[in-house]
Amino acid sequence: MSDLLGALPDKKFFTMGEVCRFCQIxxxxxxxxEKRVGFPRPSRRPSxxxxxxxxxxxxxxxxxxxxxxxxxxxxxxxxxxLKESKNGKKTQPLGSNIFATPDHSFFKTLEEIRQxxxxxxxxxxx
Length: 126
Description:
- This protein is mainly alpha-helical.
- It has one domain (2-99): Multidrug-efflux Transporter Regulator, Chain: A, Domain 2 (Orthogonal Bundle), CATH 1.10.1660.10.
- The chain has helices spanning 2-6, 16-23, 27-37, 54-69, 74-86, 104-125, and strands at 13-14, 43-44, 50-53.
- The protein has a three-stranded antiparallel sheet with strand order 1-3-2.
- A hairpin with a 5-residue loop joins strand 2 (43-44) and strand 3 (50-53).
- The radius of gyration is 18 Å and the shape is elongated.
- Mean pLDDT is 78; it is low at 90-100.
């Protein structure tokens, strides 16, 4: 699994399509697992689109291994995840915190983008 994660682009968030291609599952399967198993719980963009983090990909790969390769039921997979989290194993995060506060670098990046957009608009309007 670590070999697969090394092939990921170095970015913080991934779209549903990127996650589905990487994990080799259909989008409806991913939505079903989110609903039935309860995780991963991706954060949402203001438009409502899902944003998955790298830890969500680890969760999905582990879930896929349990359900497809080991033939564990959804209930069994959920119990396994909960048991692993209770024992303190870091191999399986249980989704992302939707209400996490962005760090300073996030706001700095947004300000740089804003300045670039203003410069582009000024250049185009002249």
